Known about the structure:
Two copies of one chain form a homodimer. In chain A, about 40% of the residues lie in helices and about 25% in strands. By secondary structure, the first copy, chain A, is of the alpha/beta class. Chain A has one domain: NAD(P)-binding Rossmann-like Domain (Rossmann fold, 3-Layer(aba) Sandwich). In chain A, the strands form two sheets. In chain A, strands 3-2-1-4-5-8-9-10 form an eight-stranded mixed sheet, sandwiched between helices. A two-stranded antiparallel ribbon of chain A has the order 6-7. In chain A, strand 2, helix 2 and strand 3 form a beta-alpha-beta unit. In chain A, helix 3 packs across helix 4. Chain A starts with a strand and ends with a strand. Chains A and B meet through strand 7, strand 10, helix 9, helix 10 and strand 11 of A and strand 7, strand 10, helix 9, helix 10 and strand 11 of B. Strand 11 of chain A pairs antiparallel with strand 11 of chain B.
Amino acid sequence: MKVGILGSGMVGExxxxxxxxxxxxVKLGSRSxxxxxxxxxxxxxxxxxxxxxxxxxxxxxxxxFNCTPGSVALEVLEAAGHVHLNGKVMIDVxxxxxxxxxxxxxxxxxxxxxxxxxxxxxxxxxxxxxTLNTVNCSVMVDPGRVPGEHTMFLCGNDAGAKARVRQVxxxxxxxxxxxxxxxxxxxxxxxxxxxxxxxxxxxxxxxFNLKVVR
Amino acid sequence: MKVGILGSGMVGExxxxxxxxxxxxVKLGSRSxxxxxxxxxxxxxxxxxxxxxxxxxxxxxxxxFNCTPGSVALEVLEAAGHVHLNGKVMIDVxxxxxxxxxxxxxxxxxxxxxxxxxxxxxxxxxxxxxTLNTVNCSVMVDPGRVPGEHTMFLCGNDAGAKARVRQVxxxxxxxxxxxxxxxxxxxxxxxxxxxxxxxxxxxxxxxFNLKVVR
Lengths: 214, 214
């Protein structure tokens, strides 16, 4: 499968490397087609890896990942372009973290709205599925880093898109996946971040996750 | 021990019954000293159970519980009176749930403030410890209703108060308790409620909880 990843930071590269390891062709999208971090990643990630602009990565992918910082997500999707996004499944792992007011970060949208909903409203023909945003990127692609069973949430408006994303999550190693419903449920999973950042502080590692025990 | 409980709804009565079963004397506080629901509870809860006004319950208790709906918590603590609250440990199980805008509820304070902080600011000499607010009341007092190990969070400004509350949690059956730090961490645990109400909808039971797997 051809996958386009928007964002060439640590999250995008970690997911890109996993997808390449699973045999997928991955184009990492950045503001510039010659982004140096993305070039460095491509040079060590093998023949299935390539880089390009946000628009080129979006055009390339049959499946897309939004791995941008939440603060620029909308702008990056605009740069990718409606024509390259419409009708495609996008896994949105971004969070509306606001670092400007000091640590721990707060959220720039929460409670009666969410970043997932904002992106979906701005790109109504994009098949957005919010998931993986509640764990560290190393855990996203390797849930076995955290011992035992733990839970991944997903939400989105399109049942077919969610079924495809469930398969991707399964390929990444996720077993306990809870579908919360439509994209408005991103309010709930994005609201886990205030706890996540504090647990990171207490536990001094990102190798943890929540399990819904029932 | 003498325990004063503010709030004679289901949460207050459930906690009251557990405390009586553990051998504690419990006064359930209501707006009226003759609240009928509280009277009914007292008549079936045994000799250790009594009722009174918010002020009488607060005066009675060496340990206090805030089991009011979050929307009236500040008003109820005012009715209880600074003189009866100052210097005492209060376990705050309330949540800032706003039901007026429809289901699922949103929060009337969140992100850069919390109900726990509001109460602590209004009663600076109260030793407030926020805990138990992330589970159904039946699970609060009987974590074994949910199979296996799962996690309870607590936070508050006073180390001695938190040590006392840890003992109460242990008496209730809690084993995995994570101290997140000062009362500002109530922002994180209150922000779990949007997920909690949605999981209740998906799982169709309140007998669930989160475990921090690490």
